[in-house]
Specification:
By secondary structure, the protein is of the alpha+beta class. The chain has 30 helices and 34 strands. The strands form ten sheets. Strands 14-15-18-17-16-19 form a six-stranded antiparallel β-barrel. A five-stranded antiparallel β-sheet has the order 21-24-30-27-25. Strands 1-2-3-4 form a four-stranded antiparallel β-sheet.
């Protein structure tokens, strides 16, 4: 094979390996020289927790079979010799392997070597002295209570190595007593506490845990299932703080961004997480979609409710963590100072982020009347008493825990990204995002919501159902418009370069196509018109669509055959030939699915002429809804069947669907949007219990739902179907309380065309759109008769998703209504029109597959009557099944009557709230809360130390010599409006700088020296003395890090360019870190188009830059020379290094960056 093609295969394998989940392997990417690639090996037993390894293929022309690898380099010092031996022998042990196999082999060999070496060390007993702490490796929960922070595991935080024996200084009694008092307050509310690490001795990292049984929240069974929680799960809020403990009073006196506390919300089978689990929760930023979702794939979401697991994430918890990290302290301070609601505080902060108000304006806004009720309604007893508004001493941990639980139980009321209250009448069961496209983009980018891989593995029929509904919603309805109400705008979907078809539903108009001839036998396309070869940029790995006019069975395409669009991926190419992987074939004829071309024997069909177009047209730029729907239809046609996707995942537990090159990236995004935007709880009702296959080839039994099956609707597939949020369910139950009848609810059918169900499961049953004449007024239409309702769900075969195994032709729901027909908008013997939406609760969804036989004589399974109790219907309003037959509805399937049908004093669908903690409390956690005796003052109250007032700094403002720094002339784009925007930011910083103690602020701008608004010189100072950077600065006689900020033409839409001017930092390859590149530019996604937000304030930017430089992950920042500070970075090397770093990470570079070099 030509070298070009083998190189392409090598690079494709490197890229594919970067998306795979391989144990202990991270950051797979290209190296500095041609064909070289680099990866990071992570393990607790190596220095810093990870090492960077470079690999050089030696015979790329013969890759993979004739190639071998040379692994001579690893950039980290102090690598154990056994690792070096493994790497030296890799040339022979990995010869002939593909990249992914090489990485798996090295990972296994390195881990085995390290674990073997560690066994002998573990066998040596260590006897601690009274004042010396050592770490125990015992696995019991009790062993963690009095063990200090494990410095052998500090690599999880990116710390440098520490000796095995660490002499610790105990926390002063006054501070420790306040910690105890705050957590005693927490425990007195029924919330358990655990001391995980540090706290009672001086440490930079102290971890406490607060936990509550999920059953105490009183959620419905449907909510538990929809939120991936179980009643027996513990909800755990981990709290980590650095240095001295920050009390509530301390937090109120500090800027919100400078409070050294962070939180993680998790679930666990026990109230007390293990030390290593808690450490791991803080070892990576939220959320890590690839690793997190892969870990979740092996757990069936329903099985997890039965078999408790270890500390793990859940979708709603990830969203709440975002809120904690972004807004909690600011919201808390506003609410306490101005006595406003949480919602009002969040709204003010959102308005400030957009308008850029100063602190005075924030206080003015907070003083305006608050229309929201301070006391939330419908909260469980554990949240009734709002501790933040207490007149007694306030416990910061309790405020945080109540904050987390409040947003959890009310999560469906808020957007999962901006956390603003969502608008609209639909109260969903699953949380989602608001209508802002930016929130949808961030939701998808952050990986919140359900795991696609997990859903496909454990609920393939539900995924098939969701895709089928979406596909049907894209088809033209009676008014020639698609049924889809909301398109996936903002996801950067790239669709084929095809314009919409005409009225005759032809193939559409291809945009700038290439004329080709395709040989189906070897999947090769030859470009006929050579003049257009340079036109579209054809690259290996790109997706294209090929159109052919095909006559089945003939060697050449004719003029009256079937229009077929072939979705294909370019596997290899020369100047005029393309080798293709054809993923799917989609016939376009009278409804887009007229002929099943996938069953043709294509290898026996002769060459055909056709046209090829790229898939690089942005869906966001298309205005016509019909055209968008047509292109999304084509995109869905490129998906494999759900069965194929499931098989791909189950065959290898390291696979992720997003890394499968069988699926176009945009089709993958669309699939995730379809699954993630589903706001209803849907699960298939099986005829009998079934075993499920996990990724490790083990099996586990799914919960038995056969008892929930409704008899009398043979030929239809049944799904449990729930929509209402806990609040909507509560309103439904409230409406039942005062009914005197013995039958408080009635059942009714609702039929609707297939194209409507995509919107119904996302927005609920409503009457926003008039699809049929409303003979009886506005409202949702129901019927007692199955046959009458099914007439509104027409069977239209062309609306079937081509890859569907269900092949749905009709759909109908069974719903529970409040038994007040006389108060409906309309009611007769057969038809109900209900205009009060919270009187409606969906219970079942029935779909009819194409291959099922027609419904004949329907019989009730009488054998089930002795096993399952029947729901007793109101005789006046009993429903009729197909052909007016009888329907048997299990009583256990109707939540409102699970316990008692009449006047049950407790909410029927909400689990009883009680103290059912079965996990025994650790005696060490209880002992920790006991008074220390000598920690109290004479008045009995806590005596706190002044932990910040005595801190001093060696930095002296105004001492910087500006004559030695670069001076820029005013740029050509220095318009008045541009200057005003930057000036407003500078004025905010001036106010902050004048009101904040120098040592607390950590940065300084000499405002008198700002002569050019587009260039700022900023000094970072007063670093934590324990940082290696601070120690290097002290040795070099340097008191500040000098930064230059250059505002580019596009600011604030584009980020500013920020670089270090001096001193020079140690290179990463030489042990440096701090996110400073080799040229001095900051290596931060925030400072690229990918991570930048136009609403970011320069205060937050400076804070994040300072935090990045102080970061110990992956390595701490160090100075290049500790004896001199005169050497400066140049602007050219800074821009070049920034460009290299951004390109390596895949971040978008501002187009106007080159102007930064010119403006010298």
């Amino acid at each position: 094979m030509p070298r070009g093609r083998t190189q392409n295969r090598l690079q494709a394998d490197i890229q594919a390996a970067s998306h795979e989940t391989i144990p202990h392997i991270q950051r797979v990417g290209k190296g500095d020289v041609e064909d070289e690639f680099v990866f990071t090996f992570s393990h607790p037993q190596v220095p810093q927790g990870k090492i960077e390894i470079r690999v050089m293929p030696q015979e790329t022309a013969g890759y993979p079979g004739d190639n071998y690898f040379l692994v001579p380099f690893y950039t980290d010092d102090g690598v154990p010799s056994n690792i070096g031996n493994i790497l030296d022998s890799a040339m022979t042990s990995t010869a002939g392997m593909r990249i992914a196999d090489l990485l798996r082999t090295l990972s296994c060999q390195l881990c085995n070597s390290l674990e073997f070496a560690n066994e002998s060390e573990d066998s040596k007993a260590i006897v601690p002295d009274a004042d010396v702490y050592t770490h125990s490796s015992e696995e019991s929960d009790e062993s963690d209570a009095d063990i200090p922070f494990d410095y052998d595991d500090d690599d999880s935080f990116g710390f440098s190595d520490s000796p095995q024996h660490i002499v610790q200084t105990r926390t002063p009694d006054q501070i420790l007593e306040r910690v105890r008092q705050d957590f005693r307050t927490v425990r007195n509310t029924g919330i358990r506490i655990s001391k995980i690490s540090g706290v009672d001795y001086v440490s930079e990292h102290n971890i406490m845990a607060m936990s509550v049984k999920a059953s105490k929240l009183g959620l419905s069974e449907e909510a538990y299932l929809a939120w991936n929680l179980g009643p027996s799960d513990y909800l755990i809020l981990l709290m980590r703080y650095s240095g001295d403990y920050t009390s509530f009073e301390d937090a109120m006196g500090r800027p919100a961004g400078q409070i050294p506390i962070c939180f993680r919300l998790r679930k666990c089978s026990k109230y007390r997480p293990k030390l290593e689990e808690a450490i791991a929760a803080f070892s990576s930023s939220l959320p890590n979609n690839h690793s997190k979702k892969h870990e979740q794939k092996i757990v069936n979401f329903e099985d997890s409710l039965l078999d408790g697991g270890d500390l793990s994430t859940f979708g709603v918890g990830d969203s709440i963590e975002l809120l904690f990290n972004n807004s909690f302290f600011a919201m808390m301070k506003l609410r306490r100072m101005k006595n406003i609601s949480w919602d009002r505080a969040k709204k003010i902060l959102s308005e400030v982020a957009i308008s850029g108000c100063d602190n005075e304006s924030i206080m003015t806004k907070a003083s305006e009347p608050d229309s929201a009720n301070l006391a939330d309604k419908g909260l469980p007893p554990i949240l009734i008493n709002d501790h933040l508004l207490s007149e007694d001493m306030v416990s910061l941990p309790l405020v945080a825990m109540q904050f987390a639980l409040r947003y959890l139980v009310k999560c469906t009321d808020y957007c999962m990204i901006c956390h603003e209250k969502t608008t609209g009448t639909f109260e969903a069961l699953k949380p989602y995002v608001c209508s802002n496209p930016l929130c949808l983009f961030q939701y998808m980018s952050l990986g919140l919501g359900p795991s696609i891989d997990n859903e496909i593995i454990h609920q393939p029929d539900v995924v098939d159902l969701l895709i089928s509904f979406c596909y049907a919603s894209l088809q033209r309805a009676w008014d020639n418009k698609p049924k889809l109400r909301q398109f996936p705008i903002g996801l950067s979907l790239e669709v084929p370069c095809i314009r919409k078809p005409g009225d005759n539903w032809n193939k559409g108009t291809l945009i700038n196509p290439l004329e080709i001839e395709v040989s189906w036998s070897d999947s090769k396309a030859t470009i006929i018109d050579k003049s257009h070869v340079i036109g579209p940029s054809l690259k290996v790995g790109q997706w294209v669509v090929i159109h052919t006019d095909q006559n089945y069975g003939k060697s050449k395409s004719g003029g009256s055959g079937t229009h077929i669009l072939h979705y294909a991926r370019i596997e290899d190419k020369t100047d005029s030939e393309l080798w293709l992987h054809i993923a799917t074939r989609h016939p376009v004829l009278m409804g887009l699915a007229g002929i099943t071309a996938k069953y043709w024997s294509w290898e026996n069909i002769g060459p055909a002429k056709g046209q090829l177009v790229l898939c690089n047209r942005s869906l966001d730029d298309i205005e016509d809804d019909e055209e968008k729907a047509f292109l999304l239809t084509l995109l869905l046609s490129a998906l494999p069947s759900v069965g194929e996707m499931r098989s791909h995942l189950v065959e290898n537990n390291s696979r992720q669907l997003a890394a499968w090159n069988r699926i176009p990236p945009s089709a993958m995004k669309l699939l995730r949007w379809i699954i993630a935007s589903n706001r209803s709880f849907i699960v298939r009702v099986n005829d009998s219990p079934i075993n499920d296959v996990n990724l490790d080839n083990t099996t586990n039994k799914r919960p038995d739902r056969s008892r929930e099956k409704i008899s009398g609707v043979d030929g239809w597939i049944q799904f449990r179907f729930a929509q209402g949020s806990p609040e909507k369910e509560a309103l439904f139950l409230d409406a039942l309380k005062d009914l005197e009848t013995s039958h408080r609810t009635i059942l009714a059918w609702h039929g609707s065309p297939i194209g409507n169900w995509h919107s119904i499961i996302r927005e609920g049953l409503d009457f926003k759109v008039v699809a049929n004449a409303r003979a009886y007024g506005d409202g949702v239409y129901f019927s007692r008769s199955f046959d009458y309702s099914i007439g509104y769900s027409k069977r239209i075969g062309s609306f079937i998703w081509p890859q569907s195994s269900l092949e749905i032709t009709e759909a109908i729901s069974l719903n529970e209504l409040v038994n007040l027909p006389h108060k409906f908008r309309h009611s007769n013997n057969n038809i109900y029109v209900v205009d009060i939406l919270h009187w409606i609760q969906c219970r079942y969804l029935f779909v009819r597959p194409k291959q099922q036989p027609e419904v004949g004589l329907v019989r009730i399974d009488t054998t089930r009557h002795t096993k399952v109790e029947e729901f007793e219907q109101d005789p006046k309003y009993a429903i009729l099944g197909p052909q007016s037959g009888r329907v048997f509805v299990p009583k256990l399937a109707i939540p409102s009557v699970k316990k008692q049908q009449h006047h049950d004093p407790s909410p029927p669908t909400r689990r009883k709230i009680g103290d059912d903690d079965t996990d025994e409390e650790d005696i060490n956690d209880i002992n920790f809360l006991v008074d220390a005796g000598n920690a109290r003052s004479s008045t009995g109250g806590p005596k706190l130390l002044q932990t910040h007032s005595d801190i001093h700094t060696d930095f002296r403002p105004g001492s910087l010599d500006f004559s030695q720094l670069p001076q820029l002339a005013r740029p050509s784009y220095a318009t008045k409006s541009a200057q005003q925007i930057i000036q407003r930011e500078l004025q905010k910083l001036e106010k902050i700088q004048s009101t904040t103690p120098l040592h607390e602020l950590g940065w300084y701008i000499d405002l008198d020296k700002v002569e050019n608004m587009f260039q700022w010189i900023v000094e970072l100072h007063s670093f934590d003395p324990s940082l290696p950077l601070a120690q290097d600065m002290k040795a070099a006689g340097v008191t500040s890090i000098v930064l230059e900020i250059r505002f580019l033409r596009g600011f604030p839409v584009s980020p500013p360019f920020i670089r270090v001017v001096r001193p020079r930092f140690r290179l990463f390859a030489m042990g440096g870190g701090g996110h400073v590149t080799a040229g001095g530019a900051m290596c931060m996604e925030l400072l690229t188009n990918t991570g930048w937000s136009p609403v970011s304030s320069m205060e937050s930017v400076l804070l994040q830059v300072r935090m990045a430089i102080c970061s110990l992950e992956p390595k701490p920042a160090r100075l290049e020379e500790t004896t001199s500070s005169s050497t400066q970075y140049g602007i050219t090397e800074a821009v070049d290094a920034y460009t290299r770093a951004a390109t390596m990470h895949g971040w978008e570079i501002p187009a106007e960056l080159k102007e930064a070099i010119i403006l010298v």
